[in-house]
Amino acid sequence: MVTLDFLEKLNNEYDKYFESVLTQKRFTHSYVKQLINDSKIQNNFSVKLLGRSIENREIYSIEFGVGESTVLLWSQMHGDEPTATMALFDIFNFLLADDEFNEIRNQIKKNLKLIFVPMLNPDGAERITRQNAVGIDLNRDAKRLQSPESKILLNLVEEYQPVFGFNLHDQDFRWSVGNTNQLAAISLLAPVYDYEKSIDSSRLNAIKLVAQLRRSFEKYLPNKIARYKDDYEPRSFGDLIAGKNISTILIESGRDINDYNKFFYRKINFMMLLFSFTEIINNSYSEINITEYFEIPTNGNFMVDLILRNVTYETQSEKALIDIAINREEVYKENSRIPFFKSYIMDIGDLSVFYGIEEFDCTGFEFDLGLISDEELKSVSNLKESDLKKYHEKGILFLRTNQQTELNDLRMPINLITNQNDSALEFNLNKPTNFVLKKNNEIKKIVLNGWLCDPDDLSKVKNGLVF
Ligand SMILES: [Zn+2]
After folding, report:
1. How many angstroms is it from 23 CA to the middle of ligand 1?
2. Are 245 and 202 within 8 A, CB to CB?
3. CA of residue 294 to ligand 1 center, whole Å
4. Res. 276: pLDDT tops 70
5. Which of 268, 300, 332 is the last residue of a domain?
6. pLDDT for 196-247, tens place per residue?
7. How many angstroms does the Cα of residue 251 sit away from the middle of ligand 1?
8. 217 and 339, same structural domain?
9. What domain range includes position 11?
């Protein structure tokens, strides 16, 4: 009998199955291709070339098992959503191993036919974009089918008529669980297939399995599981497939605050999918009451990276008290797979209805723009982090240089101004966030590219900006 013990064992033994070729989340199709063409996968799975992306990259399916019930799983239909793809390769390692889980492996093999499509949108993965090579969001192309990638998925669905379909995505990590200040680690959904949000027998099974997943994973993600919004979107694959008598489950992975490579939720995906397979075999989810599904809090949109509350902000005539909400986005330069960060002001004013992942009460602190250094920096490449303290102490957040500098060269807590671009100092909505906070004219805090720091320690700033 499969029980929660299985999950606990998976939790303990996961490291054995971690696919070590995938060590950072911005891997390209070449990694996927290399892994799939390795003899390990070729000799033990049935691998099919389903077709090619617009830019001619191969899209494969990988089959395991000889059972009657087909389960179809596809990942990374959005190119910049890689968590589940990594987990699928961990699952392949699990399925191939020879160890204490052999009984479960054999059950899966005997009862299920698993069909995996890792990385449905390889061109998007190459560019680190949601859309494919010509800018089409595949998840709005399920009806019109104008992309080869979309056709591949729908052909597969129609050919195999799976009983379960797993639609694997990453969500904006700032979604919250309901209206709490808790980030949603994983959001689940049994997608609707009409505007009435009807429940036929296959959607009922999806709803029950989602409820079972939530119940079983609360232990690993306490109060961190949400229900994804269920507005009917006829152009999306999840909703379209749910309308074909296929129990469809959406898994949306978030991101743990500093876990940029999403290794923790990769592991959760691994556990959740393997657990789902055993649930489908044993049908043990069917006893669950569907009210448990509707009790899962839906995703809320209240979170920002940083909120500074009650900042004293002096306008021409008077002093105002404002809150400042700041987000930092991951940005990639061409040919770079390592992110740098670009901050912007998300909102200003009374932000009492929002939560910050990090918050700071600035009562008594006065806002001031940072300063630009008078001297000109001769060489950017010779700049050392230890040289920057003398600037920070004076509130200098910007250095001038005549050198053409790429943003991705500057992984240091300082900004550069080239071409006399003094707009860098602007404080406004959607603008980068660099300023100081003073008390009695003394600099108490520095905000550099969206990170709040003490003036003598800016080590948490991953990079400044080039203006
Ligand atoms: Zn997505």
Report:
1. 21
2. yes
3. 22
4. yes
5. 300
6. 999 999 999 999 999 999 999 999 999 999 999 999 999 999 999 999 999 9
7. 10
8. no
9. 4-300
